[in-house]
Amino acid sequence: MTGIICALPEELKEIQQAMEPDGQLIFSGIDFYLGKLGGKEVVCAVCGVGKVFAAICAQTMILKFHPDEILNVGVAGSLSAGLNIADIVIARQLVQHDMDVTALGEPRGKILGSDIQYIPTTESIRDGLFSAIMMLNGEKAFGGSEIRAMQGTIASGDQFISSKGQKQLIAEEFEALACEMEGAAIAQVCFVNKMPFCVLRAISDSADSSAHMDYPHFVALAASNTAKVIKCYMTQI
Ligand code: ADE
């Protein structure tokens, strides 16, 4: 079974519409939707915004549903000039940009009490997501728009990034391609539970001074691109 976690209803909408539903259960105040996608068993949830909601959801999903893998799917702000609206980022690794014990001589993002700063995603899932994108682009070879995708670091924190300064700081410190608010928390929960996982995001804004204006316009378009990739991925696994 594949677990899919989105922060917002808009991010799950098209995935849920494509599901054959098979019930709904509530744990930890979160609705978990069971069913099939591409003929495979899935459990989906909307966790809410931020690292705490995301961690609650991931841990509850693991304990109650025992999925084989977890995918965190949604939108993100771009930290790279090479990433435009609706482009996809497959996370190779996640870091919490707001985890800060630098006063104790540790690098920013380091999770104290562990050796972890960057949490790697599961290679086989990354490869599966990438080949789903290749397949979608192949189908579009004679028309339609190509899905552009990059793989790299995603930085998460409990902040909506909407200034050039904040954006530059995170991009430079962590060499991150995109920023969002849940992925690294889900990564940490999966890491602790030895749960295979990956994070797939599409760009909804440029994380600078226009981010708060771009985001409401492009969130649905970006979410639609991730839904296409997930639907294709589920038919391939
Ligand atoms: N999710 C989408 N855009 C974002 C941004 N600019 N900052 C944080 N999370 C986001």
Protein traits:
single chain, 237 residues, alpha/beta, 6 helices, binds adenine, 30% strand, five-stranded mixed barrel, Rossmann fold, globular
Describe, in plain words, how this protein is organized in 3D.
With 237 residues, the chain is an alpha/beta fold. It has a single domain, classed as Nucleoside phosphorylase domain (Rossmann fold). It is 37% helix and 30% strand. A 5-stranded mixed barrel has the order 5-9-8-6-10, surrounded by 4 helices. A hairpin with a 2-residue loop joins strand 2 and strand 3. The chain is globular, with a radius of gyration of 17 Å. The chain binds adenine (ADE). Adenine binds next to strand 5, strand 9, strand 10 and helix 6.
List the helices and strands and how they pair.
Layout: E1 2-6, H1 9-17, E2 20-27, E3 30-37, E4 40-46, H2 51-65, E5 69-78, E6 88-96, E7 119-120, H3 123-139, E8 149-156, H4 164-174, E9 176-180, H5 183-192, E10 197-205, H6 211-236
Parallel strand pairs: 1-4, 1-5, 5-10, 6-8, 8-9
Antiparallel strand pairs: 2-3, 3-4, 5-9, 6-7, 6-10
The site of adenine has 14 residues, from strand 5, strand 9, strand 10 and helix 6.
